[in-house]
Amino acid sequence: MFRFLILSGYFEWMMYLQVSGKLNQYINVHYIYLVYLTMALSLLLSLVQLKLWVEKSEGKENDHHHHGHEHGLTKRSQKLAAYLLLSLPLIAGTLFPTISLDTTIVEAKGFSFPVSKESVGDPEMNTQYLKPDTSIYYNKDDYDKQMDELLAKYQENDVLQVIDENYLEVMELIYNYPNTFVGKKLSYDGFDYQTTKDQTYNFLFRFGIIHCVADSGVFGLMMRLPENAQVTNNQWLHVEGTIELDYFEPFKRQLPALAVEKIQPIETPKNQYVYRSF
């Protein structure tokens, strides 16, 4: 009975995340087919467990019982431990609310470049800031080949329009090849993040997911705003400007930046995350 409840719970939880629109805060939406596969398997296995439980409750015995013994966990403590481990994802999903990230998480963690050493649950994964870095998923030759193909796609464009679908790949290219993109026009949406270290710096960020929430990060560019611009921390903006290199004193280095020429407040998007396409 417990096996049926746990497996059906998996199915119902994933169905809830899908219907409520919260699933995209856990995984890259391009991998949604894996969720459907898991839902189907959970439903199938839960029905199998239900059938076995009904048969057992009706006094029918399976082949293992006919042989006078049964395999698997026999001690009560072993069964309780196994059920508890299987139930942990459901318990965590129920007790811990799903929330969209904003500047408070940046303020709490700070950010570094190009990749922080801070882990998010998995010691093999790194929280990323500013620059999306997919090189950790490829060997050097395959990564260089992919970057060359993407560079050929964008480097001839004098105007770059960054949208949700290409946000992470364009940002990765700009940080990898800043001199190639200096002088080009760029427009994109994001939320303003202000940090004061000797002086005030403004960044325009989006939270992005490369594969899953374990490798999520905050990505975007430093902005040089017009003198009369009035923006507030965590405000969503559409900006247009020219890519340049600007010195960021806290890092003691130049960063790709956007000299903003046009700025417009916008509504917070329904889905605040962007995802990497592979």
From TrEMBL:
<keyword id="KW-0472">Membrane</keyword>
<dbReference type="Pfam" id="PF21537">
    <property type="entry name" value="DUF1980_C"/>
</dbReference>
<feature type="transmembrane region" description="Helical">
    <location>
        <begin position="31"/>
        <end position="50"/>
    </location>
</feature>
<dbReference type="Pfam" id="PF09323">
    <property type="entry name" value="DUF1980"/>
</dbReference>
<protein>
    <submittedName>
        <fullName>TIGR03943 family protein</fullName>
    </submittedName>
</protein>
<dbReference type="InterPro" id="IPR015402">
    <property type="entry name" value="DUF1980"/>
</dbReference>
<keyword id="KW-1133">Transmembrane helix</keyword>
<dbReference type="InterPro" id="IPR048493">
    <property type="entry name" value="DUF1980_N"/>
</dbReference>
<dbReference type="InterPro" id="IPR048447">
    <property type="entry name" value="DUF1980_C"/>
</dbReference>
<keyword id="KW-0812">Transmembrane</keyword>
<dbReference type="InterPro" id="IPR052955">
    <property type="entry name" value="UPF0703_membrane_permease"/>
</dbReference>
<feature type="transmembrane region" description="Helical">
    <location>
        <begin position="80"/>
        <end position="99"/>
    </location>
</feature>
<feature type="domain" description="DUF1980">
    <location>
        <begin position="2"/>
        <end position="111"/>
    </location>
</feature>
<feature type="domain" description="DUF1980">
    <location>
        <begin position="137"/>
        <end position="276"/>
    </location>
</feature>
